[in-house]
Write a structure and sequence with these properties.
The structure holds two protein chains of two kinds. By secondary structure, chain A is of the alpha/beta class. Chain A folds into two domains: 180 residues, Rossmann fold, CATH 3.40.50; 185 residues, Response regulator (Rossmann fold), CATH 3.40.50. Helix content of chain A is 41%, strand content 18%. Chain A contains twelve helices and 14 strands. In chain A, helix 1 packs across helix 9 and helix 6 packs across helix 7. By secondary structure, chain B is an alpha/beta fold. Chain B contains six helices and five strands. Chain B has a five-stranded parallel β-sheet with strand order 2-1-3-4-5, sandwiched between helices. In chain B, helix 1 links the parallel strand 1 and strand 2. The longest helix of chain B has 30 residues. The N and C termini of chain B lie far apart (60 Å). Classes of the chains: A alpha/beta, B alpha/beta. At the A-B interface, helix 5 of A face helix 1 of B. Chain A: This is Transporter substrate-binding protein. Chain A: One of its GO terms (molecular function) is amide binding. Chain A: InterPro entries: AmiC_PBP1, Peripla_BP_I. Chain B: GO terms for molecular function: RNA binding.
Chain lengths: 388, 204
């Protein structure tokens, strides 16, 4: 019998200004394709077709079109930034394909031809603030990369803090890839926020964390134990590269390597494919989960047609390293955990707060109150300080 | 904080889509559901007794819509309107704008667009409403300019004072009576009330 094979597009940049998380997506998707092909569970194989836009937003649409038209794939796993995703949406909508987007993003989007396999703001930013504000305070400095992720995530944070009795001491942006961040650090030094919400990406984020780490080493008032940097997308891979300087700062994530059970199948697969040199962090695992969802859906419906696959992932739970996942038919998003981790010098995270359960997606923030119950907890904390 | 920075929320809104049954309507109803809006479709007009005034936003069909669909004169809808445009014929665009459509969605309707259209339509509607009210009140005050001049002149004559002093008297009187200065001036001119000789007949 002929081996049936379905092509899967893998549209990640392996170079450019945000290559670290993008490469993690690439490795995660490829590892999952290898695992599916090695498994006797699937009566077919997946054929990986990688295209590398090299971090250039304007190349994504063209490459995606090529994967679908020439590569005959109906499924593309890929995109890291929101800008690149916005470029790809018209292509998959027009050509009846599905984009499986495996990165955290700001929300306010639902496309019929996208499956969102990572958190939107109510699943990352909101639980992060819910954890951090009562512990550290609500006078906040917002920093971000100068594009939609930075703008919108900070805007939501501003809105939440404004509604909840907090205060924004400053909001600063730098261009993607820009490492000139000394002015951010001096402003933080002057304004002394309770914490810094970091929506920088890639090189800018590393430069900022290094500079803030240096400030903390020089002046104890800026030690992360006192004034941490908190992020929605800083994961094990990048923290490992940063080492000491990121230690003590916080990240919210639907996946931490430290929590992953080595007993379940997918996680064991990650350990094998990831190998000692490769780190299975959230970016890796979300892309991995996207491929597993595609394979499981094809197995169930016997076809890789976009509408059939979408129907299958909406109707059944798929076991993934992120937990059992079913796509919400109304939003094409998935329910996800929101764990809070504190970075360690060795690149792993101490999980300081485990999600009480998967949080349903709310991409338009229609059922997530922006007024959070901070006031009382902040007051309690102040009282405790006095008592101590 | 400027309101534009706020996260717009339409939860609990009711939307009426005036369009014949079509995939575009289904796509709009799906978008409504995602952003917490109860959507309803009707064509050619609403049948329910309650009527169109019960909705928070109307989506009208620029291709086949007509004035008779609405229980109000063109341009005076009491809620924001979004036009659904298939043919970009200038006449149809003009018709939808004449109805008060402050935002547009191009057909075919896909999985996005309604949210931005709602934000734009609500913002423009609110701004237009408050500007209309402000203009009406300014117009009224303009009309009463003559009464203001006459009343000032009468007070100058009566108290043998200059215009500034007289106007100040008028202003204080308006404040004491909790009326606009224009209304007080009108009453003085009409002789409804004059200093020192208050409603003599009423006392009897």
């Amino acid at each position: 019998m002929d081996e049936v094979s379905f092509p899967v597009g893998v549209l990640f940049s392996v170079s450019g200004a945000y290559e670290q998380p993008a490469r993690q997506g690439y490795f995660g998707a490829m590892a999952a394709i290898d695992d599916v092909n090695a498994s006797s569970k699937y009566p077919f194989t997946l054929e990986a077709m990688h295209a590398d836009p090299a971090g250039e937003t304007d190349r994504y649409a063209e490459l995606c079109r090529h994967l679908i038209r020439k590569g005959k794939t109906r499924h593309v796993v890929g995109c890291t930034t929101s800008w690149s995703r916005k470029e790809v949406i018209p292509v998959v909508e027009k050509l009846d394909a599905l984009l499986w987007y495996p990165c955290v993003y700001e929300g306010f989007e639902v496309s019929e031809n996208l499956v969102y396999v990572a958190a939107c703001a109510n699943q990352h930013l909101v639980p992060l603030l819910d954890y951090i504000v009562p512990k550290f305070g609500s006078r906040v400095m917002l920093v971000g990369s100068n594009y939609i992720w930075g703008w919108e995530t900070n805007r939501i944070a501003r809105d939440i803090l404004h509604c909840s009795g907090g205060e924004i001491l400053g909001e600063r942006y730098v261009a993607i890839g820009d490492e000139d961040i000394a002015h951010l650090v001096s402003e933080i030094r002057e304004k002394r926020p309770d914490f810094i919400l970091n929506n920088l990406i890639g090189q800018s984020s590393y430069a900022f964390l290094r500079a803030y780490g240096a400030l903390g080493a020089e002046d104890d008032a800026f030690n992360p134990a006192c004034r941490p940097v908190v992020s929605c997308n800083l994961c094990e891979n990048e923290v490992t590269l940063l080492g000491d300087v990121a230690a003590g700062n916080y990240t919210v994530s639907s996946y931490f390597r430290a929590l992953a059970s080595m007993n379940d199948g997918p996680a064991a697969g990650l350990a094998r494919n990831g190998g000692p040199a490769r780190i299975a962090d959230a970016f890796f695992v979300q892309a991995y989960a996207a491929v597993v969802m595609i394979a499981e859906a094809i197995r169930r419906c016997g076809s890789d047609r976009a509408d059939a696959v979408l129907h299958a992932v909406r109707s059944h739970f798929t076991q993934t390293p992120l937990g059992p996942i079913r796509v919400d038919p109304a939003t094409n998003h998935v329910s996800l955990n929101a764990h809070i981790g504190r970075a360690r010098a060795d690149g792993d995270f101490d999980v300081v707060h485990e999600s009480r359960g998967a949080i349903a997606p709310d991409p338009f923030l229609t059922s997530t109150p922006l007024k959070r119950p901070y006031a009382r907890t902040v007051e309690t904390k102040r009282t405790l300080r006095v008592v101590q | 904080m400027s309101p534009a920075r706020h996260t717009p929320n339409f939860v609990g809104w009711r939307a009426l889509i005036l369009h014949r049954p079509h995939d575009n309507v289904e796509a709009l109803l799906a978008q409504c559901a995602r952003i917490g809006i109860a959507g309803e479709a009707a064509w050619p007009a609403i049948e329910r007794e309650a009527g169109m005034r019960d909705y928070d936003v109307l989506l009208i069909d620029a291709d086949r819509g007509h004035d008779e669909q609405f229980p109000w004169p063109a341009g005076s809808a009491p809620m924001p309107i979004i036009a659904l445009i298939g043919s970009e014929a200038p006449g149809r665009i003009a018709w939808s704008m004449g109805q008060g459509a402050d935002a547009q969605l191009l057909k075919p309707i896909g999985s996005a667009g309604l949210y931005s259209a709602l934000v734009a339509a609500r913002e423009s509607f609110t701004r237009r409403r408050s500007q209309e009210q402000e203009i009406a009140s300014l117009k009224e005050r303009l009309l009463k300019r003559q009464a203001l001049a006459e009343a000032t002149a009468m007070l100058m004559h009566k108290h043998d004072c200059d215009a500034g002093y007289a106007f100040n008297l008028l202003r204080k009187k308006a404040m004491a009576e909790r009326q606009s200065i224009e209304d007080t001036a009108e009453r003085i001119v009409a002789g409804a009330e004059t200093d020192g000789r208050k409603n003599v007949t009423n006392g009897r």
